[in-house]
Amino acid sequence: MQRHTKIYFDKSGIDPHGFVPCEICQAQAVDVNHIDARGMGGDPTGSKDTFGNLQAACRDCHNEYGDISDLKPMLKKIHAKQFPTKLKYIEEMDQMIEL
To answer: Are 22 and 28 in contact (CB under 8 A)?
Structure first.
């Protein structure tokens, strides 16, 4: 399992072996994507592998909405609605760790 995928499942509490819903349309997700993409050089520091930047998506939604800069705010809003309490708590903990 890739690092970012493990982070997503650990932080979300979703069982990766069960039904994983697409955060956009609720179909079966097949990928955990970076909302703000890692880019051509990857992400050697892992700075984009945060729960707030990861989203489960089905193939159709990934193809339609992924990698479109103008849609990033919408995708982040959808993600925040899926996990409002967890996301706030996790971001607060991540900030404390950075200090």
So the answer is: yes
Give dist(CA 16, CA 45) in Å, integer.
Answer: 25
pLDDT class of 55 with cuts at 50, 70, 90: very high
> In sequence order, which ranges of the chain are alpha helices (DSSP H)?
3-12, 59-65, 72-82, 84-98
Strand blocks (E) in the chain:
31-34, 54-57
Q: Taking a C-beta distance cutoff of 8 angstroms, is the pair 7, 49 a contact? A: yes
**Whole-prediction pTM value?**
0.80
Evaluate whether 25 touches 62 at the Cβ level (below 8 Å): no
Nearest Cα neighbor of 31 from 50, 12, 5 is 5
DSSP state of 58: -
pLDDT at 41 over 80: no
